[in-house]
Design goal:
Layout lengths: L8 H30 L4 H29 L8 H9 L4 E13 L2 E10 L5 H16 L3 E7 L11
Parallel strand pairs: 2-3
Antiparallel strand pairs: 1-2
Main location: membrane
Family: Belongs to the cation diffusion facilitator (CDF) transporter (TC 2.A.4) family. SLC30A subfamily.
InterPro entries: Cation_efflux (IPR002524), Cation_efflux_CTD (IPR027470), Cation_efflux_CTD_sf (IPR036837), Cation_efflux_TM (IPR058533), Cation_efflux_TMD_sf (IPR027469), CDF/SLC30A (IPR050681)
């Protein structure tokens, strides 16, 4: 777990959970032993407060990263108009609409779009070409392209 720390938020979350549980149970045992020998009863809430203080900044970082992802669905640096222009520049593409990008983790960008093609175009080859271009030029790894041979009527509604 230590090694994969910093990769995804759910690993960070699981890591914190395991640490909190480990510290909590070993803290209780340690405090009980100390109280047995010394009668220092303040040690019990003391340990609880210390664990809480240790967790607090880590929870704050996790919350900050999660909020960042939720509030910023499009990673800074990705301009949808630039992506649209790049897709429209691919041969046999007529137009692109209903573009969406979002990220599930810091480095994982997903993208969907409807792409209208000239009639008779090879949709599979074009999906591949667009996917490769988006990965190379925009570092977008998860691409879902809906190819349209005729207008779907949603262009004005979802530009
Ligand atoms: Zn459409």
């Amino acid at each position: 777990m230590m090694r994969s720390m910093g990769t995804t938020l759910h690993v960070k979350d699981a890591f914190l959970e395991v640490w909190a549980d480990t510290l909590g149970s070993s803290g209780v045992i340690a405090a009980a032993i100390v109280i047995c020998f010394t009668s220092w009863t303040w040690i019990d809430p003391g340990v609880a407060i210390a664990i809480g203080l240790w967790l607090l900044p880590r929870i704050w970082i996790l919350l900050r990263d999660t909020t960042h992802i939720l509030l910023q669905p499009v990673r800074a640096g990705i301009e949808l108009d630039e992506v649209r222009a790049a897709i429209n520049a691919v041969a046999a593409v007529v137009s692109t609409h209903d573009l969406h990008t979002w990220s599930m983790s810091e480095n994982d960008i997903s993208f969907t779009a409807n792409v209208a093609l000239v009639s008779g175009a090879n949709a599979n080859a074009l999906r591949k070409a667009i996917g490769a271009m988006l990965a190379k030029d925009f570092e977008i790894e998860h691409v879902t392209i809906h190819c349209e041979a005729a207008s779907c009527g949603q262009e004005a509604l979802h530009p």
